[in-house]
Amino acid sequence: MEIHYKDIILRDYRESDIEDDIRWNTVETEWALWDAPWETEEDLASFDPQSFREEEMEGLKKTPQGFRWSLELDTSEGVHIGGVNAYLIDENFQWIHEKDLKPGQKSFPALGIEVNESSCWGRGLGTQGLAAYIRYFLDNGKKELYLQTWSGNFRMLRCAEKLGFTECDRIVGLRRVRGEVYDGLTLKLDVEKFEKLS
Question: pTM of the prediction?
């Protein structure tokens, strides 16, 4: 599957992405300072390129089917620069696995974007990638969309504001990043605003 939008392409994972992911987890790791750094620091320290390569090659044997909860992000020239993904949150804005949902329990997608190539930061490509992913969700009938981040992730907050997200939940002092304390934020998409902006 491919989604073309302005200067970006969203697409399914392919074999050539594996070496990019290994580089982003071993050498080009500046992105990890911003994308959930309380998790990624430990993940990077324990990252095993060989195991990762084997797992991804095994995963590529399965053809993607149905709705995509993650896609890769390319420039319109076909340069792989990151990805988009989504997970479920419950009515209290807490992460929940689909298998743990009780009958009738509500859940909502929380979307995310990673531009791992720092040389591509500040060009609006992440905003375009997230806009295209939002459109994909809306076109597939998913109308209540969220985004979660921390109060120190200024690039993500600017991107979210541009696309029509507004803060709906704040947990003060939830995150400690590089010795400073930050709030955990959940933002909800104003679909009407998004339609006007995009």
Answer: 0.94
